[in-house]
Write a structure and sequence with these properties.
Elements (H helix, E strand, L loop, with lengths): L9 E6 L1 H4 L8 H16 L3 E6 L2 H9 L8 H24 L5 E6 L1 H5 L1 H16 L3 E6 L13 H12 L3 E6 L20 E2 L4 H6 L12 H14 L3 E5 L5 H6 L6 E3 L10 H9 L4 E5 L1 H10 L8 E6 L6 E5 L5 E7 L3 H7 L4 H7 L9 E8 L1
Parallel strand pairs: 1-2, 1-5, 2-4, 3-4, 5-7, 6-8, 9-11
Antiparallel strand pairs: 7-8, 9-10, 11-12, 12-13
Helix pairs in contact: 2-4, 3-4, 7-9, 7-11
Amino acid sequence: MAMREQFDDLVVIKIGSSTLTDSTGAVDEAFISDLCEQISELHAEGRQVVVVTSGAAAAGRERLGFAKRPDDIPSLQACAAAGQAALTEVYAKQLAQRGIACGQVLLTRRDVVDREGYLNARNTLDRLLGLGAVPVVNENDTVSIAEFTFGDNDMLGAIVSALVGASLYVILSDVDGLYTADPGTHEDAELIRQVTTVDRRVSDMAGGAGSSVGTGGMASKVRAARAMLAAGIPLVICHGRRQHVVVDAVHGEEVGTRFWNADAPGHGSGRKLWIGLAEVPHGVVQVDRGAARAILADGASLLPVGVHTTSGSYEEGEVVSIVDEEGAEIARGVTRYSSEDMVRIRGLKLDVIGRFLPEKEGQPAVHRDDMLVF
């Protein structure tokens, strides 16, 4: 396999539908023009940029004459089909005016849950970047089904950031960042400037989906931030319509909320990032307090003795979600036991397991090398 091109200053920018559209719900070309001007400025500094854009369905609604978001899946997919073309036209025109080429990349989760598909997507993005183009990435909503959707483009942007080895992931939102409470209902809510770990307290500060044109909210952005902390990639959530906000975020100025922990080791392994971000968990393994502490603090594998319960149906070699006693997800990993065997061996020490499953002697439930810890 050919060596990957390396990009030291690579920025992934994700734009939400509510930021991308105007008060009528139409795509705001003036906003895209300003964004492309900032991209041009970053290019002039020698940086590479990937754009992860929402707004296809909104653009398609306008083009197909829908007054509001349709309720049925075929109409939504038709809007996405019409909107993808309209949206890409705007980006291509605005970037071309600044001497920059762009290439559209449409992904579904099906494209990246398969390891080969994941690598193919990465190679396409790498090649576009190597040619000096700006990849414009969106979920392929025209063919996605529920099982294979990313759920929101915040996580799609996180997966893309991991794919290309981004140096920064910027989410442009319609809010200034993460607040201590909902600023719409709490006058004393304060903007949090720096977050070094996403724990239950931080997750509780995030709300649900916030607009009629988008699918994400602060909760989805915080989930993406947790993934980026695990990947060792800084993430900034900021107001997309603040003047010069992308360039300011890249230059390290204080805009929005920055999720970054310089002391965290990160997980440079592409395989671990694929396991934790791209693959769909096939089941859930709940661990006891001691096992959770060993995984989070000691860098340990998950041993069968620490497994409390398991749910879902999965085979050996499939990805499972690992949760603590309170049900909070702490890691994802490739299991070395099927769900049927996991029920049999949970709570047992390795030497005991070897007596009735000799082929599994010494095997952890999930090895540390096959685990992404959040």
